[in-house]
Each structure stands twice: as C-alpha cells, then as structure tokens.
Amino acid sequence: MNPTPPLLSVRKLRVSFRDEHGHGAEAVKGISFDIPAGKTVALVGESGSGKSVTAMAITRLLPEHGCHIAADSEILFDGRNLLTASRRELRRLRGGDIAMVFQEPMSSLNPVYSVGEQIIETLMLHTRVGRKAAYQRAVALLKEVGLPTPDRKMSSYPHQLSGGQQQRVMIAMAIACEPKLLIADEPTTALDVTIQQQILQLLAGLQKKHGMAVLFISHDLELVGQFADEVVVMHHGSIHEHAPVQQIFEAPQDPYTKALLRCRPHLAQRPARLPVIKDFLGDSCYFEPPQRQRGYQADDRVILEVQGLCVDYHSRHGWFGGRHSQRAVDEVSFTLMRGRTLGIVGESGCGKSTLGLALMRLQQASVGRVLFEGEDMLALTPRQLRDYKRRIQIVFQNPYASLNPRFSVAQILTEPMLLHGIGCDAEERLQLAGDWLEHVGLPRKALAKYPHEFSGGQRQRIAIARCLTMHPEILICDESVSALDVSVQAQVLNLLQALQDELGLSYLFISHDLAVVKHLSDQVLVMQHGRCVELADADTLYAAPQHPYTRQLLDAIPQGWPHCIKPRVA
User: Fold this and answer.
1) What residue ranges carry the coiled-coil annotation (predicted)?
2) Residue 425 burial class via C-beta count within 10 angstroms: exposed 0-12, middle 13-18, buried 19 and up
3) pLDDT digits over 480-504, tens only?
C-alpha cells in the first residue's frame, strides 16, 4: 500500500539575495521538509534563520529583482511545482488553496477599507459569488473567528480594532475560501498571553473543522509545543533538526534546539543568569548558575512611591459633540525600592504603558501623587522637573521606532548629555558615549554607524545605553524585550540584571510576558481595566494568586509539550 503523498513538499530549496553590485548571501540553504494534509508543522528559529523567506518562497511573494531561487529547488503543492506555476495559477492558489496570516495585521490590512469590504473582496475574487452572498458569508466568518457583534464589525476600520481583533480579521480572510494550507507567520508574537492562547485555540479549532494543514512559524518553542505535530528547527538558513514535537521536547538531538529550549525564562526556576545560544554551540560548556532569590527586604529604602494615581483621556465626538472622558489609570498605588524591580503586568489596554508615561510626566495625570525620594514630581514646575527627568528614564518597546534613523549612534548618545549639561565638551561626551556603548556589550566603533545597521537586540542595547548616559536611578522598561527573539531576549535580560547589580538601578518592568516578569521582578503589580487588582512578592503571587484575573493570566502562559491546545492521537 502506497503512503499518502504530503500536501506540500519542499525539496532542496535555496534562496539567495543580491544587491545591485552583485554582493549578497544565501538566506535558505537547500532545505527539505513535508507538510501532510491536516497536520501542523512548525518552523522555529531566530530572526534571520530563513523562516519567513521560506514561507514567502512557498507563496511566490519574494521580490523578483535581487532574489534568486536555485533551478533544482522544488515546492510541490498537490503534486504541482509552485516554482514553475504561471501568474494566473498563482493568483488562483493564493487566498484560495493557500492562505497566509502575517505577523503584523495592522500593516497587512488596508487602512482605508472597512474589514468587511476586505473580506468581501477576497470572497468575490476567489469564489465568484454575488455581493449579497459574499456579505452574508463575511458576517458568518467574523462570527466563526469569535468577534463580538460581527454585523457591526463589518463596517469597522482596522485602526478601530484591537491587535487581537485585527488578527482575527486576518484569520477570517485567510479561511474565507477554506484553504488546504494555512501559513501563519508569527501570528501571536505581539499579542498578550491571553489573546495569544485565544488565537491558538481558534486556529486549532478551525484546522479541525476545515481539515487544513498549517505551517506555523515562530521563534518560541514553548508556544509551538502546544500546537504543532512536527517541528522543523532552522538556524542560518539550514535545518538543524526535524522531528515530532514530543521528541523535540523530550529528547532534542541538536545543540541549537537544546539552546532554544533553555533560553526562555521558566516559571519553575530563576537562574542568576539566563543561558544564551552561544553557551551551547561549538566548544562551549554550559554550567548551571545558582538560583537568584527575589523579593523586597526589610532594610530596602523607598525610592519611588505612587499614591492614588489616576489618568484620564479626553475626546470630543464631532465638531459640536460633547467632551467625553475615559479613565485609563484608576487610583493605582505602589512602592518601588532602591535597587529592586517592580513588574507591572496585564493585557493590552489595561493602563500599563499609560502609567509609565504618567510617571515620566509624558502623560498628564488627573489625580494622585508620585513621590521621588519624598518630592512630588506631579507638583514640580518644568524647570524643577528637569533634574528628575534625568534621574528617571524609559526604554520603549520598539527599538526600530525609538531611535532617530537620521542620527548616528554617536549623535543618539551624546544629544541627551548635551541637553542636560553632562560632559565638559564634545570630545568628553563622545568618550562617555563610547564607554556606555561598551558597557552594554557593543564595540566603540559602532558610534559611527546608524540604527538601520543593527539588529533589533543591538538597537535595544543602544536605547538602554542612551538612558544610561543620564546616570538614571530608575529605569522604566515598557515592553522592552517583547519583540525580541528568545535568545536575544535572554541577552537583554542578562544585561538589565547585570546593570542593576553593578549600578543599583531600580526598574519598573512593564510587560505582558509573565514568565519574563517573574524572572526579573521582586514584586509584581497586576492591572486590569486601569486598576490594580493584585500586588505581591513575585514568588508569592505566582505560587498562590488571589485574584481570578491573575489566575487567568498565569493559566495562559505557554507551557510547551505536553500542555496541548488540541487533543492528540496516540
């Protein structure tokens, strides 16, 4: 009896990129793997490993100029080689038999069309139904992906939806024509843990209902352990390991796979230093570091005390409409100790980032007090506040947006020193900038480069160095590691911990990633709908959460194998 052929078969795929001078590199280096019908295969690896390039090659969405696929490469879908398919056949396949969900729904959805119009367009293009039937089918799709009031959501524009709702719309568009293969490229990376679990459950349910095969792309092995049947681990364009998910978690063979599993913080342990990829590759020998104890101590000194802080957002509907207010932060109080870390967690929209901005006076508070060593920062004049702004700094989530692309690294680091009168002259400021750059693990020669010449993790190090030039006492980290690969994330977390140990910095660590928060925090504050619903030492809160919402957040943390989203067949 002949075995059933796979739905998709990738054979000896080689993809290279060249610039106008003929210089370039091979992004995918002769990889081969299969995706059986109705199964989920996960592509896992760091940024630059070739995961997304592989997905774009399957859908033939790679640029025609500057990109070359080797002549002996094959991508067989239902027995047809997609690399030799005509444009007409590809148009029929894309959105029909093969659909794709991208990482950034806001940049994938058309901002000038309602979400309903975009789904209707997909249906009318691929199924050739009338507009009325397409409208009814679009409403049914929005209902199927779990959007409330789907008939009203039809007229909504992408910017009017949350990130999770935007991703649900993308999934609705992807399954509109009941594809045989769904490619999900990092579909949950920027989402909260609870929304992340909802999206995974949604994908698993839709896969079971429609019998789709899924190519799930991620950098997080813990996440794919809940969802995938097979895992393909990629590194620098090559496949390092390909095995069933159970083997990957219980008996990984390749050092790189073992490294990916170890880099992510775990709830059960808190090493003094997180392992990184290079600890497991080559001749490196990794030794387990001691565990770090967390929690406020009796002799800790208060550096920041927040009392009953409230922040309101005001809006006006129409030219002559009334003024409306919405409370984003509602009577939040906490104490931060010198040299300690307070983690602030909660879903998007709970007020975490607004709270951090209000502490910096970047967002106006309505009520409350923010006492920095006893001085109320909210009552200070702009002139009085100047010195305090130097002593409390913020690292934002997106290092690609927080660094001026027109400035060199030297300008980025020396400008704050010039504004605050640090350093006698330009030469001394440049020397200090180089010192801080080396302090965060980057070479002094990087001063002459521009942000686009660095990776995401390197840019975040530059952003941290910019804060350190001010000699701050408090650092607010607003989702500062959320967009990073697990290995780069481990490097930045190790850097933050080393700086705290050396300089005695106090951190307000804002994140939706509860595993990362537990690793770094002494105390954790949980926010929901602008209010503090729980505040306790990190170990106490994770071991015995008191509030139902805290328990809900903890239950949503990816646990990897065998904590499965969908039932498995033995």
Assistant:
1) none
2) exposed
3) 887 778 888 888 899 999 999 999 9
